[in-house]
Structure formats: structure tokens, C-alpha cells
């Protein structure tokens, strides 16, 4: 039987997770499927032949991509040439749109089917990009329903497959098991503090987050605080910030385990990002903060077209959880919001019911659904002859 060839490109760790699950789901239908492109250790473990180190694509900010531009352009040219020579049935770009969409458009114009997995934030800003996306992809796979609606409105073939996190996290409350894992005693409230995973993010948020912890400690003296550190560098950064803080706070910094820390908590104070979706799936009330540099905020505030920035509110399409932006990221604003989330039992019960509804909506066996769409787009049946 002729092997099914699939080109696939992931540019960062989150894409590697999605790509590995997608490869696994496709291989349950086509065990002899071949995957080539760019992937991380999880995709390689599932049988993907990675033509370069995925970390070479993982660049962020403004300066670093410019410094690496010649290398990235060379790699993009190489992948275009390779796919034209190898002739896969389909090429899949997973996130990393600045890199992958250009390749998708190139091979699509030359007769190879293309699919993009994980929508860029085109619904939030620079919405004109959807015209270029329409020329680059035969099909878009989104994680969230509100993204699917945006592409439908713009005539781009699209399927919302749900989010893999919703498949992984159970609907039952994980607090007791998480507290046992972290050796956290019952009988007192716990605030999880997540200032982000990147150095710049932590630098912007850790001081006002600690000041908010201090405010809460005065209002509720028996409260304790857990902070997960994304890696060793962030742990050093967070510990230095705590050391420079003059107040004696009962703060414990945990290496990794952000999901366990949130599950063990009663309420979460966090930087905006995918962790807010995890907090929702774990049924934890939260306050979500976002802080930019001064000039970045002035620019982005004019470009952004959505009234919300946190995933719970975007999914609910209303203000489900408090969002705190820019100059409002301070203790006297965030402290009372967290206290309300912590002590209002009726609000908490209502919020958990909302969270469970969204959880059920997102739990759609994402990787299996994505595999179905990939195979249909590639023009092959789900089960080989």
C-alpha cells in the first residue's frame, strides 16, 4: 500500500503537543502514514521526521526575529523546495502563522492541499489578514467556537475541533488530590499567583501581584499563596522579587506544576494566556491581568477589535471573570476583586456552572476530530483499503 505522506510544521512547544496528538490520531487510521517537516521531541517520538531543530523557529518579540531573519528565510525556502519534491497529500501548519502561512500559500498555489491548525488572533486585531489566510489554506482548524464563527463570516472553510485541554482535564473537582500532592493543609484559603512564563511578563506583574497578596493578607489573615515557576530562570526571578519585598508573606514558590497549583487553590490571580483556560477547566474563580510597555499599549489599544482579552470572557462572549488592564494592575483594584471571588459563595457556584458548560462545549475529542478533517481535506478515506 502506498504510504500517505503528510507535511507538518510546528514552531513551538504548544504546537509540538498538538502535532504529536494529531499524528497519533492519524496513525490509528493510517499506520503507514509518513510525516516530514518540523517538529519537537513529542512529534518525533510519534514518528515525524523533523528536518531541522524546532527551537530554531521559536523566536519572540521584535528584535530577536529580525536578528534571525536570514536563517528563518533560508529554512522557509528549504521547506518549500522539500515539499514540492516530496509531494505530500497535504501540508499542515500548526500555529506559528508568521512562518507557516507563507509556506502553506506557496505549496497551495502549486497544487498541494493545505490546512492550518490553531487560528491566529485575526479576530482580535489586524482582521484584514483573513484575506491572506483564505489564499493560504484549504481548511482552518480552530480550538474555540468564536474563532469558527469569524471564519464562517469571511467565507473560509473551517472546523472547530475543541481544545485538547478540555479532553485532558476531568469535570470533577481536583482540589483534594492537588492539595495532597503539594502538601497544602485544608482549613484556610489559598491564592494561586501566576505572573506568566516569560521574563518580561514576570517583570511587569510580579510586584503588583505581591502587593495584592499583601492587601489580601490584611483583609484575610489566614490566606496562603502559591506561585508556580515555569522554569529555573523564572523561579530565580520570582524568588528575587519576593526577597526584595519588605513584607513577610506566606508565599511558596513551586517548580512547574502550574495546573496542580491552580487546582489546589480557591482563587487565581494570573497573567492573561492559555492558563486562564486551564483555570476555567479546573473550575477556579480568577482575576486576569495584562500589562504592556507604555508604547506597545498605545499601539495595540488602537488595533485591538475585541472588548475582552481573557479566554473565559472570549468564550462566554461577556464579562464572566474580572479583567484588569494596564494602569489598573494594582493592589487596590485587584485585591477587592479577588476577595469577592473568594468569599461570595453564590457567585462562585454560578461561575462554576458556567465553567462546566464551556468545558463540555470544548471537550470534543480534538485530535480525533482534527484527524478526520485532515484526511478529508487530503482526499483520502478514514480507513485505508
UniProtKB/TrEMBL annotation:
GO terms for molecular function: lipid-A-disaccharide synthase activity; phospholipid binding. The lineage of its organism: Bacteria, Pseudomonadati, Pseudomonadota, Gammaproteobacteria, Cellvibrionales. NCBIfam families: lpxB. It catalyses: a lipid X + a UDP-2-N,3-O-bis[(3R)-3-hydroxyacyl]-alpha-D-glucosamine = a lipid A disaccharide + UDP + H(+). Pathway: Bacterial outer membrane biogenesis; LPS lipid A biosynthesis. It comes from Zhongshania antarctica. InterPro entries: Glyco_trans_19 (IPR003835). Its EC number is 2.4.1.182. The keyword Glycosyltransferase applies. SUPFAM superfamilies: UDP-Glycosyltransferase/glycogen phosphorylase. It comes from the Bacteria. It is an enzyme of class 2 (transferase). GO terms for biological process: lipid A biosynthetic process. This is Lipid-A-disaccharide synthase. The keyword Transmembrane helix does not apply.
